[in-house]
Amino acid sequence: MNIHEYQARELLARAGIAVPPGVMATSPAEARRAMERLGVPKVVVKAQVHAGGRGKAGGVKLADSPEQAERVASQILGMKIKGLTVGKVLIAPASEIASEAYVGVIVDRATRSPVFMVSPAGGIDIEEVAAKTPEKIFKATVDARYGLLPHQAMALAFHLYGDVALVRQAADILQKLYRAFVDAGASLAEINPLVVTPKGEVVALDAKIVVDDNELERKPAIEALRDAAVEDPSEVLAREANLTYIKLDGNVGCCVNGAGLAMATMDLVKYYGGEPANFLDIGGSSNPEKVVTALKIITSDSKVKAILFNIFGGITRCDDVANGIVAATRQFKVDRPIIIRLTGTNEKEALQILAGVGMRALTDMDAAVEQAVQVAKGGAAA
Amino acid sequence: MSIFVDKGTRLVVQGITGRDGSFHAKQMLAYGTPVVAGVTPGKGGQKFEGKVPIFNTVAEAVAATRANTSVIYVPAKFAADAVFEAADAGIKLVVCISEGVPVLDMTRVYPYLAERGTRLIGPNCPGIITPGVAKVGIIPGQICVPGPVGVVSRSGTLTYEVVYQLTRAGLGQTTCVGIGGDPIIGTNFIDCLAAFEADPKTKAVVMIGEIGGTDEQNAAEFVRKKMTKPVVGFIAGQTAPPGRRMGHAGAIISGSSGTAAEKIAAFERAGISVMKRPADVVPLIQARLNGSRPARKAARRPAAKAKPAKVKKKK
């Protein structure tokens, strides 16, 4: 789960990291009052969206009066950045900056450990630094049982600053960042840029935290930070029904059990010349209700021209899926053709259930996908 | 022969009285797996299905039954502790089926196991099956038959699809391993490839990967440098958009890394036959078993032809 910058800043501040004050605003008038409240001569107004490259997209602007803050906020609120509508802005004092660095910690798959990355070349996308000047990135692997050791934090900080007073401040921030990372159940926590003010203070200007979805059940305070307004409504509906749904641009709606098979089904749609409309995994122990919700979500996408079921029964019982399909057609009008492939556990029962309402099913994945692609293209239905 | 699971397997089921644990314990017993013990705290002294003794702790189960392998079906938030408990009891192979285990838990589990020489398969995996001998996990037994092909995969149902296609074509399996769809897993592709390379009964390997991470790329490098046996590979997620988790927590293209194209290119460089779709597995395995790639050492015997295995008629 992504959280907003203003929320990440709050988590860092709570961990004891120096973060300049900031106020979140959802309207231009609020932005004006926010600047009045901060009482500083110059602020930066920043779009709060779950996307990088906000500055380049015009989502970060300076203002030197409350009136200008209001004007700038009215330009940023409602704009689209990488397809996401901006509903919130952060108003923060514009800082004088002596230097910009990057510090971050991620869960690294290769070492199976948290890994810190720091770079004196901060303020820009770290992937860009990694690609262009990899020698400016320094790493330390953390043994998660002991956390970031003080000497590791110092060694990293010495890569950022020459002045030992700054090094000590930065090392302290790294320790606190690690604590915030663990407390949030994050898979990534970064400060970019970490800046030195003209007074010689090291402060976090921007923060990003990505939370591991698997932590949310045991961290209700973090779950509460979720901003459902920035999510696709059908993805929210799917999540609440314990389905995994990701909307794409094609016209073959897919309903599959298992993530790997769901991806392979999308790929096979493409292989036969079609375009998948979505990724949808109904999960392992599916019940008929889940299938009904899945069909509701798929049919709510007006681009969908054909609906493809691909079920390999293991824990998932084919008769559950068949019952779900029948129940859905009774509850609402499924006005698009459905092509069903099912095999495995209780396949025979499923075929009988479908036959009872005049539906048929295939047992071969390739045959079903090919047919769904043809139907979506306007070919003859099964 | 086989890898990881064989005739010497003595299995303890952690969470044997839970909904998933009891269902799959019955399936494993029905398959003929030596399930020697179950563990549910507070239910020690009872019997599962009237025959499998239940213990309060894994240590008690090991002391009483000499269990050497464990399978975990406990809820995700308790999974890490269940793995620690198994390792502390001296279990050398732990298979964790639980889905939704926080990844930071795994960062603590992994070094602990490494220090104790315990192998973990999973979490968030379907487990492992040595057809005709034993199954540890949830892979449907009826789709597998014994034979010469090793299968290793990050997925569940996609593995079943591929195994089913092999079985229908008369290509049986030595062992099928589902290594799991999470970003941090105990056993990776290379571990399994090395085990299949060392297993005399395995004549060819199918490797089913997906987007996200670099495990497949590293495995391709291993195949190129270390493997004499033919490998056929598939990557799921060619149509997946970047930045989105495709169901599996580990299936995500981060920035420009972990794409299907990058992995397929690595496969091709390593001489792995690439499946464009699941159904390609049969012709590609048949071609490789017929020796379309020369073995590195002078072969003492010609590449074994796959014996047509019996395919059980599905009910």
User: Mind telling me the C-alpha Rg of chain B?
Assistant: 19 Å
Number of strands of chain A: 17
Q: What structural category do the secondary elements of chain A indicate?
A: alpha+beta
| CATH topology-level fold name of the largest domain in chain A | Rossmann fold
Characterize the main sheet of chain A: 6 strands, antiparallel
Q: What is the assigned CATH homologous superfamily of the largest domain in chain B?
A: Succinyl-CoA synthetase domains
Most residues in contact, chain pair and counts: A-B, 54 and 64 residues
Helix content of chain A: 25-40%
Please, what is the average pLDDT of chain B? 92
General form of chain A? elongated
- Give the number of helices of chain A: 13
Instruction: State the distance separating the first and last CA atoms of chain A.
Output: 41 Å
Keywords:
heterodimer, A: 382 residues, alpha+beta, Dna Ligase, domain 1, D-amino Acid Aminotransferase, Chain A, domain 1, Rossmann fold, 3 domains, six-stranded antiparallel beta sheet, 13 helices, 37% helix, B: 315 residues, alpha/beta, 2 domains, seven-stranded mixed beta sheet, 32% helix, 20% strand
